[in-house]
Design a protein that fits this description.
globular; 2 domains; four-stranded mixed β-sheet; D-Maltodextrin-Binding Protein, domain 2; 51% helix
Length: 414
């Protein structure tokens, strides 16, 4: 860090410390981290904010991000803002920024040298509008993982799968033994699972060309056709009446040995840790479904709605700086299952799954944007609805599902 940046960081730290000494400020923080692993991780953030001299007032919203986001945005638009809120990087906050309702934290980012210490650059870029930083990225999540229970396979006399093809090949034998081959939750987890299979079987390049560039020829072409055909072949292993309401319930079925596998983001790792299961021994995690190790640059960020109280504004900025400190990044991400935003932290305690993710992040070119960073939320919801209907209704042909998908991509705003 140069002398000028060091001086700026020192001055900023002194100012927020002075504000903290003057008085503790209550900060209501909204988020949707309510599963066992998520609750353990968010407690690390709360601990850090409290240690800084302010007080984290937990505003957890039960349910998924699809439930929480409208509530969060409605509160901000309605003039009843929280001090800070979790969202995902992408387009969700664009309207709030345009309306001038979110705090500009460029001074915090500059003082902390975020442009050089946070990676990948796409995460901070998602927080930046017209050259100003409006959110702090706190982790890197990836959705492209298959999670399997080794004991389930071994007890059935089947080698644990190493990739998607192995999983498909073993599914009939598992089902014949009364074991559910694949667990699945309703709603967005279906969309996540289908996207993961799209990436694994059609490739990262084609996935990005469709979602980002709106390439209709690829969306309706043979590369995507083989994916929809593959999904039609495996949906018999997760009939609609076997789908559970929440993603962590689906992961729980694998942990409990009631299902053999689940396709879910790396946040599922936090659930296995809470259950005291050991990666590489009790369960396996296969990035890119074991086909091609990849990571998408999803994750979580915190925005800070504008507040008329200068003490709250100072506390918001202190919180933003706190969340990316080395110690907090390690403590949070080890429990969340996600990757830290910083490369200069001690991750000797990382489990096998996190080490796999770090290896891809640091040494692979197969890192690509999350879907919400490439396409608007409304179109994404339509895609998820189509995928959900397709997976739940055996009478819907692969060709019909692909045609609906192409139509949504065609009409998605750029």
């Amino acid at each position: 860090m140069g002398l000028k940046k060091f001086a700026a960081a020192l001055a900023f730290s002194a100012s927020v410390m002075t504000a903290g000494i003057a008085s503790a400020t209550d900060l209501e923080v909204t988020h949707w981290w309510t599963s066992g692993g998520e609750a353990a991780a968010v407690a690390e953030f709360a601990k850090a904010v409290d240690a800084s001299g302010d007080h984290w007032v937990d505003g957890a919203i039960a349910g998924s991000g699809d439930v929480a986001r409208p509530i969060i945005i409605s509160r901000i638009l309605g003039g009843n803002p929280m001090a800070a809120t979790q969202l995902n990087p992408g387009k969700d906050a664009d309207d709030l920024i345009a309306a001038g309702l979110l705090e500009d934290i460029t001074d915090v980012a500059t003082a902390g040298d975020w442009a050089h210490i946070l990676r990948p650059a796409s995460q901070l870029a998602s927080c930046t509008k017209d050259g100003k930083v409006y959110c702090v990225p706190v982790n890197l999540h990836s959705a492209q993982w298959m999670w399997t229970n080794r004991k389930v396979y071994e007890d059935a006399g089947i080698a644990p799968p190493q990739n998607w093809a192995d999983f498909v090949a073993a599914a009939p034998a598992l089902q014949a033994k009364g074991i559910q081959p694949l667990s699945m939750a309703q709603g967005w987890p279906v969309g996540l699972m289908v996207n993961d299979v799209l990436v694994a079987l059609a490739g990262v390049e084609n996935f990005v060309k469709v979602y980002k560039d709106r390439d209709l020829a690829i969306a309706g072409g043979p590369e995507f056709t083989k994916v929809f055909d593959a999904l039609a072949a495996v949906r018999q292993y997760v009939p609609a009446d076997k789908m559970v309401p929440q993603w962590n319930e689906a992961v729980g079925l694998v942990i409990q040995g009631k299902a053999a596998a689940n396709i879910m983001g790396d946040w599922a790792g936090g659930e296995f840790q809470v259950a005291k299961m050991v990666a590489g021994k009790d369960y396996d995690c296969l990035p890119g479904l074991g086909v091609t190790p990849v990571l998408n640059t999803g994750g979580d960020v915190f925005y800070f709605p504008k507040n008329k109280d200068p003490a709250v504004t100072a506390a918001q900025k202190k919180m933003a700086a706190t969340l990316v400190t080395k110690e907090v990044q390690v403590a949070f991400n080890l429990k969340k299952g996600s990757l830290p935003m910083r490369a200069d932290v001690d991750l000797s305690a990382a489990n096998d799954c996190m080490k796999k993710g770090l290896e891809i992040l640091d040494h692979s070119s197969a890192v690509f944007p999350n879907d919400v960073q490439m396409i608007d939320r409304d179109s994404l919801n339509q895609i998820n609805d189509t995928f959900t209907a397709f997976m739940a209704d055996p009478s819907m042909t692969a060709a019909a599902a692909q045609a609906k998908f192409v139509d949504i991509i065609k009409n998605a705003p750029k």
